[in-house]
Structures are given as structure tokens and as C-alpha cells.
Amino acid sequence: MIPSENFVSKAVLEAMGSVFTNKYSEGYPGKRYYGGNEFVDKAENLAIERAKKAFGVPRANVQPYSGTPANFAVYLATCQPGDTIMGQALPDGGHLTHGWKTSFSGIFYKPVQYHVKADGYIDFEEARRLARENKPRLIWVGASAYVRQFPFKEMAEIADEVGAYLAADVAHISGLIIGGAHPSPAPYVHIITTTTHKTLRGPRGAMVMVTEKGLQKDPELADKIDKAVFPGLQGGPHDQTTTAIAVALGEALKPEFRDYAHQIVRNAKALADALMKNGLKLVSNGTENHLMLVDLTPIAKGHGVFAQEALEAAGITVNKNTIPLDPSSPFYPSGIRLGTPAITTRGMKEPEMEKIAKWIAEAVNETKNYKLPAEKAEIGEYVKKFKEEIKGNAAVKNVRENVRELCGRFPLYKGM
Ligand SMILES: *Cc1c(COP(=O)(O)O)cnc(C)c1O
What we know:
alpha/beta; Aspartate Aminotransferase, domain 2; 16 helices; globular; binds pyridoxal-5'-phosphate
């Protein structure tokens, strides 16, 4: 139930494992440095056309190896090293590449970070003030752990006021956008980046798109992005991934995908409601997308690791995560993050969410007598001992049996 993960179709798997992996294709369709690219050109052009259609944008680059290099390409195309940039802080749900100090984005550029409020919503007052004071050249909107709809319009007002480029990083929600289950950033931002392996349900890869608004701000912006991806940052594209992106986008443009995207959100809302009914506290008291954050501070600060490990023992994979204004540290955060894209792909619906929520609450309840030692040096040993004990816990074992039975009824790749 990690919200950034999903299960791809057999067609996407086949494309990834196809003979396209054997080829070198530096350059772009029709302008390659190698011969023998007739079919690679067709696949890449198909991926580009489908990306343009899916997002309603005039230009798309489908070559980035993954989300992080895609975002790096945006910096290369819009900024000089040392320029000021602004993004949502990592502990507030933002991504490493939006200016966090240990990432290239915080090393080569001067980052300014905005935050979310205790209620989980982005603090616009702060974002506007920081933009006015620091005049960033590039502003990011988008995150990896944000439970509300992204405020593209509001962030555009801030970016336009200070003349910044605005890039929407929709890695998590691109499938929801294509399926009509989340508003599109296309009318408001200059650039859109996305991974292709999260809600979009494609291969591990990424895309950078330039909007009409982006071309109006800078008619050369899309060419600059292309140059930033290759030769700026990468060599030969991964043609098997490009082909699989074309396949995934083809699937995402089908009417059934709209049902899938809306079901992800319905499932998330059902899961969130049921978790709260079972006594767990959620950041922002719910969700408007595919993910939610359980705030474990009513049990103890820094409790995420215990919930993660108890759920792992119960057969439910989640990740510990910071919550807004986390009283603990990013390595021992006070929450867990849960998402519905993968279980929705397996065909689960609202009745299953009710069951899963009950099981999650039961497993988390078994962690109540454990507490992170105040002494840092003792934490490793304590967590190790906890893992052993929780594996043998009768209630957790019971949940594990239930999870196994449920998964058996919603198999992956039937008949494979
Ligand atoms: C997942 C993610 C990325 C990076 O993706 P990788 O493929 O892991 O490099 C970038 N931005 C956001 C918001 C993400 O959630």
C-alpha cells in the first residue's frame, strides 16, 4: 500500500522486456546519432503524441531515466547554478529534488522552502512572502506526501507575481489527472514533470512537458528542456522504457482508466474514513487523492517505525513518514503513509477498504506498549527486538492470515 507503487499490465511488462533494450538512440526522433532507429522513432513519437494528448500540452520529452533526472533537466533548462529556487520542504511532504539540502537541487541551487500548516494544507501566506523576499527563478508545486488537491492556480498567482517559472511535479497524481480524478495543472504552470510508474501505471521512467503558458513565457523553453535531457544530462534513452511508456499512456487514454482513477480516490476516501472510525488519527482528517497519512502522535512521537514493522509482519507494506510539524526526526518520523493505487489495480473496492482499515488498526494497536528509546544508541537494538516480538504476536498473525486470504481473491496477472 505504498502510494508511489503500482502493478503494471502484462503489455507494459512485455514492452519493458522487449528487444528495444538492445538499441542505442542518442538524439530525438528523426535526429539520431545512430542508424537503425526506424522503429525506435515510431515508438518514441507514439509516446510523445500520447503524452501531449493525455495532458493537453504542446510539447513532451519522454526520455528522462526517472523522476529525479527529469526534475534536474528542468533546473538545467531554466536556472544557472546558484540561482534561487523554491519548493515544498521534504518533511512537509515535498520531494528531495525540490531543494532539499542533500539533493543536487539543494547543493547546486539556493533553496527556499515553503511548508504546510498543521491542518495539512500548504501555507500560501508563507509561500507568497518567501517568493516576494527571495525572488526565486523556479518554483515547484507538487509533492510525495500531500493529501489535498494541489493548488496549481494559487501557486501560479505567486509565481506570476514574481516572474518565476512554475513547474508542477505531478509524479504521484499523473494517473489521477489523466483519468479526470484530479484537476490538471496545464492551464496554470509552465512545465509539468511526472514519473510514469506511480498512478500512471507504467514503467519506471519520467516525462517533462511544456505547456502553452510555458511557450508563451519562453518560446524556446521546450527546446531548452530537450537539450537539458540530452545531451545535458543523459546519453542514450532507454528505448524499452520509452516503448513501455507509449503502451502505458495508451492504456491510460482508454475510458476504463477513468474508472480506475476515480476508484483509486473513492477507495482512498473509504479507507481514510474507516481508519478514523477505527480510532486512528489522520493528517488533515482525510484525503482528496490516492494517499493518506496516519498521525501516530496519540500513541507516541517517532512511532512510525513500529507501525511500519507491525504492518509488515501482518503482510501489509507501508512506509513510515513525517507528518506536518513532526515532533520527531525524518528517520524516526511520527506517521505512516498509505495509498490505494496498487490495491485498486488488483480490483479491490470500498468493502475491502473497510476490512483493511480494521486490520491496520488492529496491527497498529499491538504496538501501543512500545516506545522509541530516548537514548539514540539504544534505538537499533530496541527496534530489532520489537520486530522479533511482533512477528510472534497472535493478533498480528491473525491479520496476516486475513491479508493472505484477501490477496488470494484478488490475484495479479491471472493465468500467468
Ligand atoms: C517519486 C517522485 C519523484 C522522483 O522519482 P524517482 O523516479 O524516484 O527519481 C519526483 N518527484 C515526486 C514528487 C515524486 O513523488
